[in-house]
Write a structure and sequence with these properties.
This is DUF116 domain-containing protein. The chain is of the alpha/beta class. The protein is built from 8 helices and 7 strands. The structure holds iron/sulfur cluster.
Amino acid sequence: MQVFYELLGKLFVLFIIIFFFITIIVLVLGFYSFKRHEIIFPNFILFMLYLFYSPAKWICRVFCVKEQLVDEILIEIKNAVMLENFKHVTHRRAIILPQCMRHPKCRARCDPIIGYECKQCGMCDIGKIVKEADKYNFKVFIVPGDSFVRKILQSYKPGSCLGVACHAELTESMQAVSKIVPVQGVCLLRDGCYDTKVDLVEVSKKMEMCDK
Ligand code: SF4
């Protein structure tokens, strides 16, 4: 019996070592793709990094690399993989923004299904995004949380989704929404759940690249 437990222990250690090295290899491949904008084995990297998301972040911490790198890689690769499908959707396009982009004195009302309804008062960048979205035929949703994303998917039934959020939330939402419709994501430049900012040019570019 003791031999059996010893063998089991050895197998467990071997598994941990193999898993550790595979995760490092995936991180290196992902980092290369991210930096060079040349995606290698995208589906394999996406599968592995989503599967070992927390351990990959732990490995980054161990090697003193910012753990946000894991999210950056996942978002970049997901964007690349879904870009063509996203561009060609011409109906019911949606852009989903986080409520933390609103001005602290925002007076928009929150609908229990679709989130905040911007009055375009001009106090924050959301008003500018709404104008751009009108031009490119996107409907804007400003959501207080993930549960609203699910409600929007059920009620509005978008053909495609452009999401804006902080790194970790965007990574998670893109994975969930991409199972239903083509997605693209843009990370917040400044996060922190309050008065956050996004690169407006990048958001406009994502909408502009879509078929008329
Ligand atoms: S532009 Fe819209 S979201 Fe921004 S503060 Fe005004 S009403 Fe609120």
